[in-house]
Structure formats: C-alpha cells, structure tokens
Design goal:
20 strands, 8 helices, 2 domains, six-stranded mixed β-sheet, 385 residues, OB fold (Dihydrolipoamide Acetyltransferase, E2P), alpha+beta
Length: 385
C-alpha cells in the first residue's frame, strides 16, 4: 500500500526561475492521478521527482509514511513506464520483463511466475520469445508496462506512455491501462499526459499545471480535482480553456446589473445580454469581465423555445460548419475576432452564410474576472440544468 504526499515542492535549475513551485498534493492509495498540461509546464519533471530521477530543490516527497527525498530511485518502491518504451533490443520479451527481477536476485521460479502472470494479464503470452523489433508499437508498450507490473510496486509512474502510438492504438491501450488499474491492488498510479481525453477517461484526480506563458504561476497547480469538477467548475479561465474540446468560448463583457439571483452583463461590441447564476459579492457594476460558455452548451434556439428561460442568446452568422457525423461544429462570426463555436447535432440543418440563434442556460455560463479567476456559482450542482 502506498500513498503519495508532496509538501511545498519546488524545482529550479541553477539561478533560473523555478519550473515547479508551491506544489502541495495528496494522492491516495489505489488512486489514479493524472498530471495534465501543455508541453513545458513541468509535469514530467514533477513525476521524475516522485521517481527519484530528479532532485527536489525544496519541499518533501513522501511515499507511504516514508520521506524519500534522499532515497535512491531503486529503493522507493516505484516502477516507471517511459514514453520511449526503453526495451533492450537484443533481449526477448520474457528477458525484458524479467530483467529488473534478475537484478534484484529474485528466485528463478518466482521470476517465471510473475512474468507469466503479467503476460497473461497483458495478452503477451504468445510473444514471450520474440524480440522488440518483431513487435508493434502497442505490443512494445505492453511489454514496458509488464516490466513494471512484475516488480509489484506500490506506485506506478507513467510518463506519456501513449504519445508514440497512432490514434487507434492509443484508444485500445488506454482501455487496457484503465482495466489494469482495477487489478493494481492497493497501488497508486501517477500518469503524465498533455492529452485531455486520456486525462478525462482515466483519472480519479486530475492535476492541471499552469503553462509557461503565465510566468507568475508557471509550474504551480492551476486546479486539482475529479475530471468533471474541472470540466463543470473550472477555477480559472486557464482551466476552462484547457479542459474541453473544442475549447470554451470566451466573450469580453461588462457587468450591467447585480441582484440576489446573480449577474447581468453586456457582451462588448454587440450589446447582447447574458444572465449568469454566480455569486456577485465581489463584483461591481461596470466592471470588465469575461463570459465563458462551452460549445456543447450552446443549443440552437428555434421559434418554439422560450428565450426568457435562457441566460444567453447569441444571434450570429455561420462562417464555417464541420460535419463530423454524430455532431457538427458550427463556427460563428465574432466581432473580436476570436473563435465562437457551437456543437450541435450532426443532422442539424445549418449552413454557411445563415444567421442563427444559439442559447445557453444561466447555469451553463461562466464568469471570469480580469485576473482570470472564476466567480463561484450560486449553487453547487453536479451538472447543468
């Protein structure tokens, strides 16, 4: 059994600004935690500090009840799966999976048992005598995972393990990793990716790190929580823009009215009104803000829809349609030049050049202050009405 606790973690190289800063995090036993963020935000560096492959500049790393800052990587009870597979090309699948156990002087019979058990779980039994050059990319990744499994560690660390696979193999291997997690009895999993689909489908907890563009927050945690918490209740504009595909629509606006039911704002340049069910104690009339609404929460407003029941209605011209089968992405004109997208049914009758109305409920609209932080909703709900 192994939980992971990070206290005040910081990482800097020389006199340069820290690449990781102020990281406080608890990862529970048997929890699947995903470090998510764009390239260069420090997620792999944070993983390597847990593994012991990078020194910690400041703070404490605990695995279970043990402080491991000065414990060598080989003695931390962790197993790591790398992006590049890192298989020995001259060894068979069996030999690659058994290599770490041989170094640890594990009895031969136990090595055979563990390797064959891992091969059975990963469906590699028929490939044990092959060398890596005779395997597909997906099979090589499964061998790398098997090499970690046989060690029976308390912590599994995955560093972008699917980035070298094509889209189909990524989907298949993602399902296999999710299935394997259910068999990792009492083991924690930490998984690094820049792919939000992987994060949303695999994680019990997502830890989203700030991008390098935000120099004051670079390398810190933007938000940590369950996947749907980050999706429905982003803590900042950065989180809202990173989670979700297509990304959230952002509309510059100005506060017009505040009352007990929330806030009314005017969209800049168009004067369209939006009603938001948010807590307004910290807001002021005439304050500049940003309204956010996800493409999937913008629905077509037909004549039979009661517009008064909607928090936001946009009347815009269609500049592009992307028909993807089950759904269609409708690109609408936006005076500020930013992309404005509605995700509608695949068979919706929408065509370039038409002028349409799209609407969203008040609870589906987000509000962000000038410094990028989200204004809290009036009510804590799991999903929108």
């Amino acid at each position: 059994m192994a939980s992971i606790t990070l206290k005040g973690i910081e990482k800097a190289y020389g006199d340069a600004a820290p690449v990781i800063r102020d990281v406080d995090l608890d990862i529970g036993t048997n929890e699947f935690c995903v470090f998510l963020g764009p390239s260069g935000c420090g997620k792999s560096t944070l993983l390597r500090m847990i593994a012991g492959l990078e020194d910690v500049t400041a703070g404490e790393v605990h695995i279970g009840s043990r402080l491991v800052n000065d414990v060598p990587a080989a003695e931390r009870g962790v197993a790591m799966v790398f992006q590049s597979y890192a298989l020995f090309p001259h060894m068979t699948v069996f030999e690659n999976m058994a290599f770490g156990l041989k170094l640890a002087k594990t009895p031969k019979a136990e090595i055979v048992r563990r390797v064959h058990e891992a091969a059975r779980i990963l469906q590699l039994e028929a490939l044990l005598e092959r060398q890596p050059k005779a395997l597909s990319g997906g099979q090589r990744q499964r061998v790398a995972i098997g090499r970690a499994i046989v060690r029976e560690p308390g912590v599994f660390l995955f560093d972008e393990p699917l980035s070298n696979l094509d889209a189909t193999l990524r989907g298949q291997t993602r399902v296999e990793i999710a299935r394997l997690h259910r068999q990792f009895a009492n083991a924690s999993v930490v998984y690094v990716t820049h792919d939000q689909t992987e994060a949303m489908t695999l994680a019990d907890k997502i830890v989203l790190l700030h991008t390098g563009k935000d120099t004051e927050r670079y390398g810190s945690i933007a938000q940590a929580g369950a996947p749907l918490e980050l999706y429905y209740r982003p803590a900042s504009r950065f989180v809202a823009g990173f989670i979700g595909s297509p990304r959230m629509n952002f509309l510059p606006a100005t506060i017009e009215h505040i009352d007990a039911d929330g806030v009314a704002a005017l969209i800049d340049q168009t004067g369209e009104r939006v009603r938001l069910a948010v807590q307004a104690a910290s807001l002021q009339v005439a304050q500049p803000v940003t309204v956010g609404v996800r493409p999937e929460h913008l629905t077509l407003v037909t004549p039979d829809v009661e517009r008064g029941s909607l928090g936001l209605v946009l009347n815009r011209e269609i500049v592009l349609t992307e028909r993807l089968g089950e759904q269609t992405y409708v690109h609408l004109d936006a005076p500020n030049g930013a992309a404005l997208i509605a995700k509608v049914a695949g068979d919706a009758s929408v065509n370039r050049g038409e002028r349409i109305a799209c609407g969203a409920s008040a609870s589906a609209c987000h509000l962000f202050t000038e410094d990028g932080f989200a204004v809290a909703p009036l009510r804590s709900i799991d999903h929108y009405a």
